[in-house]
Structure formats: structure tokens, C-alpha cells
Amino acid sequence: MLYAVVDIETTGGFASGNGITEISILIHDGVSVIDMFETLINPAQEIPEYIQALTGINNEMVIDAPLFSDIAPKVYELLHDKTFVAHNVNFDFSFVKHQLSLAGYQLQCNKLCTVRLSRKILPGHRSYSLGKLCNALGIEINNRHRAGGDAAATAILLGMLLQADAEGIINQSLRKASKEQALPPNLPKSEIEKLPLSPGVYYFKDQKGKVIYIGKAKSLKKRVCSHFTGNSTSKQRQDFLKDIYSVDFEVCGTELMAFILEATEIKKLWPTNNRALKRFEQKYSLYAFEDQKGYIRLGIDKFKKNTPALYSFNTILEGHNLLKALIKEHLLCEKLCFIQKNRQACTAYEEGNCTGACVGKESAAAYNVRVKYAIEDLKKMLPSFAVIDKGRTEDEQSCLLVEEGKFYGMGYISHHADINAPEELKSVLQPYPSNDYILHMILSHTEQFPQKKIAI
Question: Per-residue pLDDT for 21 more than 50?
Fold first, then answer.
């Protein structure tokens, strides 16, 4: 068996929005390295400063380097018939597979994670990060945080794991037993074997590779296999099972992240067999606009996808209650805020409790000052916080960011990241669309686990 030991350097933490800046591939025959390939890569985007500081790779170094599409044929040739090996393999594999797919190559191969294997074959170490584990094992890493240095160390680690694997754990990892007779007729056993026991989101695909169902899981393998239990012979179920040809997945650090990713992916891809989350739609939002007389108007309206909103609500009553609180606190006009309609002046003016903006007695400039204060107060009322939890490995932690009452995004950060620096967090988190369904999930989670919430 041949192994391809891979290490990459990237511009960020997720494959779809970031590029590869360096790749090293070492072909290992189980005894030693027999071939190698290494190059800097032009990621076609700026390299963030903190990543330049970590890796030493800057924009000037990659400007004349090949694009990934230029080296894709060579990379695919080296990888497609090998077992893909990396330390935290899902990270490296996700980037390489994504970049290959953009170049027209579909990478399908077995994977081995030297983090997971080390935990099983070499138990008892305090840390299984590459640096600390290699230090404990006496493996010297030259050029740390560069693809070549880290790949070389991983190749040495792989050799040690192969020698120490008296129980055949590596072969078991590649050929895990499953009840093959329970699988759908067109789904290869290998599709189940590749699934980890981690939280995440899974995608059932048909013969053409189209996603027909998306689900979340606390344990990907267990949840996927649960679809194939039971004895229902309904046409709907049988057609569903018959159409499953492959399973793709994305590992998440926590079940909450899987919930959010599932909701987002269903709204984006609209799979045929998903129904419940398709029905969720944002209902109402609070908007601000300036009318023809120069007055800034606040009002509740149906959610508009491409119009910036101050805040969103599931019910119009919830929106009106918030707006009335702002009106009372800042002496705004109910008529200009569309609370009162079909009247020449608001009730408060007729009762002598209004400055008269609705009938032109107060200038737009004076009235707008209070409206702007109301908007600022609204922003202060809306929570900004991060949810910090376990990552996909012990070398990272997961982070969800809520900013001024809206879900900004999520991703994985270092244990040493400055949580109280929102802009720094944003540079490493993947943005996601916010809606009340997702925000409610996050708020419910933080009520249950307040220790995971960090105010920003």
C-alpha cells in the first residue's frame, strides 16, 4: 500500500473561501519516502498578516508561484490511488479536494489521520498536536509551520505508527466492518466506512452527484446508518434509498455548529427530500429610511432579502413591541413610525405630548437626532458575544460570533486567539446568513450553557 503524506499552508480556515499557499506531498511505501512534490502556490487572494507571521509565507513570495490549477494534474496523479495521510486530515483533505474539484478533478481516496491514529496506537501523551507529539517522540521538525517541514515530520510519525501498530488499527481504520446488507442498493460500503463518529452535516447524493438530502448529526456514521434501519417499504422511502449513490460530509466541532450548517445548506441547496427547514422564512424586520421631507422613518415591514434591516422578528407583534419601546424612550412620533395610520397627526400630538414632527411643527434635523439616538440604543440593546466550545481537534476551539443581535458566522480558532477583538475573529470565521431560527438556536444554547458565552 502506498501512502501520500500531505501538508498544506492556507490563507484561512475553510476551503470554500480560502486558498492554498504551499503544498508538500511525500509518497511513503510503508517503510520510507520514495517520491516527493513540493511547491509554493499563488492563492489568487491576499494572505492575512497573522498567517504571514505564522508561516513566513507572504504575498511577495507567491506572486510568481503557479496557480493550483497549474499543478492540479500532478497533484491528482500523486493522490488519487494512494491513502491520503495528514495530521488532522480533514482540514488538508477538504482544501485539496475543493481545489482539485475547481480544476475538474474529483478526488476519491481513503484517508488516515495521524492525530486519531496516534491517540489509539500511541496512547498516553498529553497533547497530540504535531509539534508537541513530535517533541515527545524525538522527531525533529525542521521549518515548522511550512508544508515541507510538517509533511516530513508527519511521514516519520506515520512510519512509527506503522511499526507500532501491533493490533492492526490502521487496517481497521481503512476497512471498518459494517452491515453491508442493510445499505441502499447503489451505495458502496466504502461510502459508510469513510464517515467519522464526529458531529457534522452529511449530504446524500444521487447518481449525478446532486444533493438530495442534508442532515445533521451528533455522530455522522451512526446517524447516516440509522437511515438504513427499519422495514418501511413505502414508495417514497424506497425511491429515496434507491437514489442514494454517495455520501459527503463536513465535520463540525459541536452539534450546535452542525445544526447551523444544516439550516444554512438546506436553504442554499433546497434538496428534494428535505421539508421541515424549507418552510422557515424570515417574517418581519425593522427598517429605517428618509422620507421626501427629510424625516428618518422607522417601521416594521415584511422581510426583504436585499434590504438592510435594523433587526428581524418572527411576528409583527414582537416588532411592534420593540418599536413602541423605542418610541416611548426617545419621544418619537407614532405616525412617522407607522404605528398610527389614517390620521393627520398622532394621538400624542393631539394630547399635547408630542413635538409635532408629524405635522411639521418640529424640523427634520431636530427629530432625526432622536431617531439616530434610538437606533444607537437599539444596537446597544442587541447582544454581541462569542460562543466558545470544543473544536474538531484538541489543537483548536470552535467559535460562533453574534454581533448586535445578528449571527455573523462561525469557524475554528486558536486557544490563544483574542476573543475580545471582533475584527480579528471575523478574519478567521466563515460568514453565514443570519435568521431568527439560527439566532434562537444559539440563544437557547447559551441559556443552557452560559459558561460558553463570552460577551464582546
Answer: yes
